[in-house]
Fold each of these.
Amino acid sequence: MAKKAATSDTQANGLRALPSVAALLADPAIRAATSLSPAGLTELLQGIVGEERAALLGGRPSTRAEIRERVLAEVTRFERPRLLPVINATGVIIHTNLGRAPVSAETAAALASAAMGSVALEIDAETNQRGGRMREVSDLMRVLTGAEATLVVNNNAAAILLVLSAVAAGRSVILSRGEAVEIGGGFRIPDVLRQSGATLVEVGTTNRTYARDYAAAVDVGTAALLKVHPSNFKVMGFTHAATVEELAEIATTHGVPVIDDQGSGALLSTTPFGLRSEPTIGDSIRSGAAIVTASGDKLLGGPQAGLILGKRDLVERIAAHPLARAVRADKSCLAGIAQTLRHYADGTAVQRVPVWRMIAATPQEVRDRAERLCGQLSQRSRVLPVDSTVGGGALPGETLPSSALALETSQLDGDSADALARRLRTGRTPVFGRIDGDRVLLDLRTVLPEDDEALLAAVEAVLAPHASPQL
Ligand SMILES: *Cc1c(COP(=O)(O)O)cnc(C)c1O
């Protein structure tokens, strides 16, 4: 009994010592560290004080000074926006964790100006009648791929779910066992099929599936033949996959569509840049796919979006499905996709679209930039040959020869490569590189030339003697 009373006493003392929200609100250092309104700051402080009270009652009390330190740290962290631009020097062009494709300056401007004002999204300016919000993108895509109509949604995952829901709910979809894949982030094609209300009919084997396997499986319940690009892995050796052409022939005979989840949204051939051939959207349409789906922010190089292209009657049916409204693209996205497509339509994509600029940069150009930066760095660095990858689930296993600025940590006051990489990531202009033994590699292929000076300044700031870890 005596012991219990003593504990409660301690707790009561602790609770009395807990700083009040009002006292913290009045603390000049805390006020100086925040831009929050009094109401917002009160809300934040109530949360912290509440957690500290619970910790105290749970036997883990903090001192007043510790609580004040914590409040200052959280208030300061709150001031720092997280989604600020960083420099991608990882060597992965389409880096999912860094937000996938960067867009061109023109596309960024189109996104911003659509966002900031009103646009004639669904009004025909000539007639003042309601007009299709997909008109511009459809017109551009028809020129670029031959597709009769295009529908833009939030992302390709939404595109596939919508297409299958509209075309195949209550019926079956034939898919190769080699293409019953997981795309990433738990997005599994068999699960999406089930979610859409369609039944999966798997044919062939993991490594070999022939056109005749699909032909043998078609029956009256078949809604579509589905082809999925196995984006993020590559099966080597004894393999076979049926082509879109072969599937289209079978599909036509039975009056069902071929749906091709093409994935990367490539509108240009990758082979001129020394990469394996990646099917383009146009290839798929020309090969007879009735519907093609793709991402807007992989090899297309635009903002996040899902593209559904193909036969007009099918696209219209898909657009009329109730789910279409739930996943439709907004005015900014449409303006951004349209501007990105204009780079392809006027033939300047390789000069304008960042993803293609990075792919098209010659090894010599990249090395020259690395050498120049290396020469300007006050601290010791070297230029090393490295390999970049395309990333984003496009061309797995393929690499592009590149050059990296190698920052040798052994030369730099005993900093470990991990610590240096962390300081680069947390600097005023964050830089993401990759660690290779005791050095940090900054791959210049994934940095746009116009960002070279910013990269140089960011590295200088981190390497400078007495640079504070938190710039
Ligand atoms: C990337 C990808 C998806 C998912 O696209 P998101 O735009 O990320 O939703 C689906 N299918 C394939 C083949 C892909 O490569």
Note: The chain is about 45% helix and 15% strand.
Amino acid sequence: MSLPLVLPDDTQAALDQIAAAARSYLETLDDGPVRLPDADAAAARFGGSLPEHGVGTLAALDELVRDGLDAATRSSGPRMFHFVTGGGTPAALAADWLTSVLDQNAFSWVASPLGARLEQVTIGWLRELFELPERFGGVLVSGATLANTTALAAARQWWGERHGVDIARDGFVGLPPVPVLSGGYLHTSATKALATLGMGRGSASRYIADTSGRMDVDGLARALSDLHGAPAIIIATVGDVNDGDADPVDRLADLAERHGAWLHVDGAFGLFARLSPRSAHLAAGVERADSVVADAHKWLNVPYDTGFAFVAHPGLLGKVFSMDAAYLPRPDEPRPNFGHLAPEASRRARALPVWATLRAYGRAGYRALIERHLDLAIRLARRAADHPRLELLREPVLNVVPFRYHPGGLDDPAALDDLNRRIGEALVTDGRVYAGTTRYLDVVAFRPAIAGWRITEREIDLLADVVVELGDRLR
Ligand SMILES: *Cc1c(COP(=O)(O)O)cnc(C)c1O
């Protein structure tokens, strides 16, 4: 088997082979474990040194399927509650395959009219889905971490301009530290973005109102007053990873307006609260923010990796991310060239799966999905509250349900933490369902998140049952 010429061209056979493997894999999703018992061993079977002579297309894919499927986490199935994990809807998954077949470079209109147009349409549809005003421009990136980075780069540029400095052009030279104000829900990806952008991982001051971490609006107001009109960046979180709660964005928007601050909202999954009247209050006021980000690979159920950033002053994105070369389209060209608004230059046409799933299921389909998940969160909360050896730590406000194993008679906090940590480790090794532990209200707790479209009541009950079973065994 030799390149540059692969003869015969076995692309068709390769796609058939993978389609067959995909069919059998998908059939195992509903009833099989998230993690196979020999997953680690299967992963370890990959290795060796670089082959001098390849084994050929079909043999290589055969190996990938054989060991790869055993090592893979069934995270797009209904038993996945770890992190905040979606899974591809049928339309999104199929469109994602097509994205690879078409292999478009979504840098510019010239590189791909399809990629550019669908990104333009998709950003408009997402803006409608979340009821954001027309002034918001947007761009697709690889996830909420990069969306935070993209939006906060626009915020940084705005902040520099307020000091008379073009940071994208000249850097931070001569500028004071950037005041970044936040609460306890601040996601670690936002601090990573601050580190990436040179504003400092530890720069965010946190104003925390209650034990769970909600932002203290009065404390924030005092901090803003102390700045005496100097520009600042406020980072709000809608959808805390531990309990789904949100900072009071509407009140933060009042403060941002009064003090001339930039309000950024990280709504990686929480932004979807806007889709149902049952949860929309959590994300009220987001339309008043300066920048808003969310993930597509969480609650929108698009395969990895896609998220999006909205900026209410989209010209700032171009100031940071535009590129200048004689062979590239000019940033001021009327046709959309998203490479001038995004951190990457060459980029996957991520709009295809997002467009396909919105076209296939529409606003009503997603509202129904969110509401089904709200119901499932309530069901899990009731299971935890009613079971004698489970303890619900907070009534669900969205789709994350913090609870722990707590048998009667065991009240030593350290022992309870240790037991729940061990159950968490056993749960992942057991593999029937997947959920992780966190520290919540100062105790070790489970924080299952319900975001996959395949999840039903059956898996909710299974999760509660398996935690009890493992807890009973380990106590
Ligand atoms: C998941 C999450 C992120 C990071 O998203 P990635 O897709 O992993 O980059 C950021 N913020 C919040 C609130 C999240 O839940």
Note: The chain has a mean pLDDT of 97.
